[in-house]
């Protein structure tokens, strides 16, 4: 059965789904979506996703959006075991907490600082930058004494968070100041299948867009 995936390569949430699909061994039928041309506002797209956002997944007529929900779905349905998204309630709750931390704190604070610069040509707000630094201090503490963000094996939380961290990194945020984060980051880049092809290449596209939009 074909799984259609509507995405833009520069988007961190979209890249996290590409990585998760690679890890679980699912082939996605990629549907590059031109947001500037309004392809996400067509009647066909709105029927799938009334919120008209990417990423959006169509798995044989089952429509799902929000990247972290898609990660959970792919791991549950297509994972060879439950290591990416444990069935044990406590282990799963910890993975969920890290996913919520990503969307509500780590990636949120990245956007709060960088997106006004990117889309409104605003000057960077130092207080918002401090909030990013605080979120990386939190992440650094999460990684104390363990190899991955939710324990000692790779989970979908690592896949979501590395998509956020790599996006900040490509814009020059100094990840190396956070010892545990930097060590984890380098490890994940090496062990996640397709990292360069699916994530780093998208980071470069995001950086290109950022540079074009912030030209003086």
From TrEMBL:
Quaternary structure note: Homodimer.
GO biological-process terms attached to the record: glutathione metabolic process
Domain GST N-terminal positions: 1-82
Keyword Transferase: yes
MF (Gene Ontology): glutathione transferase activity
One Pfam assignment: GST_N
Protein name (database record): Glutathione S-transferase 1-1
Protein family according to the UniProt entry: Belongs to the GST superfamily.
Domain GST C-terminal: 88-213
InterPro entries hit by this protein: Glutathione-S-Trfase_C-like (IPR010987), Glutathione-S-Trfase_C_sf (IPR036282), Glutathione_S-Trfase (IPR040079), Glutathione_S-Trfase_N (IPR004045), GST_C (IPR004046), Thioredoxin-like_sf (IPR036249)
Organism, scientific name: Zootermopsis nevadensis
Keywords: Transferase
